[in-house]
Amino acid sequence: MKFELMTKDECINFIEFNITGNSENYNKCDDESLYLNSSLFNIFAGCFERSNHLFEFIGQTMYNSRTFIPLKNELNDNLEKLVAINNFKEFQDYLSGMFMGRELINQFNQIDPEYEKHWRSYIRRWIRINRGLNKLINRCIEEELVLWVIGY
């Protein structure tokens, strides 16, 4: 499992962040899109759900000028929570409180049996992803783009 935004060639079971279209169409799996592993997206899924009541985890959801500011605010709140995690218990509490968090903990146990020692590294990567998503939203606002979030 890669802990970063990726290109389409690097990912399976993923969420696509697509800015290639308009309010009706987009170029599916475009080279310009960014991708995130579905399990990792769960860390941010609540931000997308709370900012757009039409959000669908499997399927496509459009974000535009009406939903960018609420999404940005949710991502900023999430970033503050990530930055505030200071110990392993807070790390586990954060994961346990999110959608599919326990499943993500189980995946960590399988991938990295000593993840308790590496939790800070994971948090740093998630902070980078969160900031990358904020950067993408800022680009959409500045360039008046539509963002499609598509689950596969």
Describe the structure.
- With 152 residues, the protein is an alpha+beta fold.
- The protein has a single domain, classed as Hypothetical protein yfbM fold (3-Layer(aba) Sandwich), CATH 3.40.1760.
- 55% of the residues lie in helices and 12% in strands.
- The chain has 5 helices and 4 strands, in the order ββαβααααβ.
- The protein has helices spanning 38-51, 65-84, 88-96, 101-111, 115-143; strands at 14-18, 34-37, 59-63, 147-151.
- The chain has a 4-stranded antiparallel beta sheet.
- Helix 1 (38-51) crosses helix 2, helix 2 packs antiparallel against helix 5 and helix 3 crosses helix 4.
- The longest helix has 29 residues, at 115-143.
Looking at this protein, list some descriptive labels:
152 residues, four-stranded antiparallel beta sheet, Hypothetical protein yfbM fold, alpha+beta
Concise structural overview:
By secondary structure, the chain is α+β, with helices and mostly antiparallel strands.
Which SSEs are present, and which pair or pack?
Layout: E1 14-18, E2 34-37, H1 38-51, E3 59-63, H2 65-84, H3 88-96, H4 101-111, H5 115-143, E4 147-151
Antiparallel strand pairs: 1-2, 1-4, 3-4
Q: Name the structural class.
A: alpha+beta
Number of strands: 4
According to CATH, the fold-level topology is Hypothetical protein yfbM fold
The CATH class turns out to be Alpha Beta
Query: How many discrete structural domains?
Result: 1
CATH architectural name? 3-Layer(aba) Sandwich
